[in-house]
Amino acid sequence: MVGSGAPDFFYKEAQRLGYVARSAFKLAQIQRQHKLIKPGSSVLDLGCAPGSWLQVACQSLGPFHNGGSVLGIDHKKVKVPPLCDSRVQTVSADVLTLPKHQLRDLSPKQKGFSVILSDMCPLVSGITTKDAALSFELGMRALDLAVGRVASVCNSDADNQDEEPCDDDLSSLDDRGVLRVGGHLVIKLLESEDAKEINQICKPLFMKSSWLRPKATRPSSREIYLICQGLKPEIKK
Fold this sequence. Notes:
By secondary structure, this protein is of the alpha/beta class. It has a single domain (about 5-230), classed as Rossmann fold, CATH 3.40.50. Helices cover about 30% and strands about 20% of the residues. It is built from seven helices and seven strands, in the order ααβαββαβααβαββ. The chain has helices spanning about 5-15, 25-35, 50-60, 100-105, 130-145, 150-155, 195-200; strands at about 40-45, 70-75, 90, 115-120, 180-190, 205-210, 225-230. Helix 3 (about 50-60) links the parallel strand 1 (about 40-45) and strand 2 (about 70-75). Helix 2 packs parallel to helix 3 (about 50-60) and helix 5 packs parallel to helix 7. The protein is globular. InterPro entries: RNA_methyltr_RlmE, RNA_MeTrfase_FtsJ_dom, rRNA-MeTfrase_E, SAM-dependent_MTases_sf. It holds the Pfam family FtsJ. GO terms for molecular function: rRNA (uridine-2'-O-)-methyltransferase activity. This is rRNA methyltransferase 2, mitochondrial. Keywords: Methyltransferase, rRNA processing, S-adenosyl-L-methionine, Transferase.
């Protein structure tokens, strides 16, 4: 059901402009403010259904001759929507179990992606703590795919005294993330203390991290986006 006020405006605008969902305006605002997607960018859209972020990502690449690519992954089968060109492809796969080496093989020249977008969100139950925990899991999975489990664990807050120490066995080829050095990561989360924890993990890994609640977000929603810019090179021990 379409809400009243501003959200209704975005619903109508999406229909008028040919976007498959109002969520297109969330990425459009992120792009306007942070300019993450540039001509030639290789973009990975995690949880891409119904496809509105594919549309905005493709438009953000500019004219076809600029190059670039957009890959959308979702457990649902998603057709490439209108407003997209042949630079956009979709794959049906479970993001939660997809091995990183297979995901890297899907990237241009198998070198990873320059922008990773995660608009994944759990089926909301209405139980605040449960929904926040599920959102945290999805956010951590997006971070894992982007920078690798070794980086996310080893760079976690020092206050986590109970965290297992980094294990050399984790540093396999498949555990390296698929986000290129200098690349950007966007993660949708539900506001919670867990969401703040992900930000603390990301801060030392990226040049900059910030929060944004897009104007197109429904007033009743607790959605917020963590925007991480400029992945730092891995520090060798």
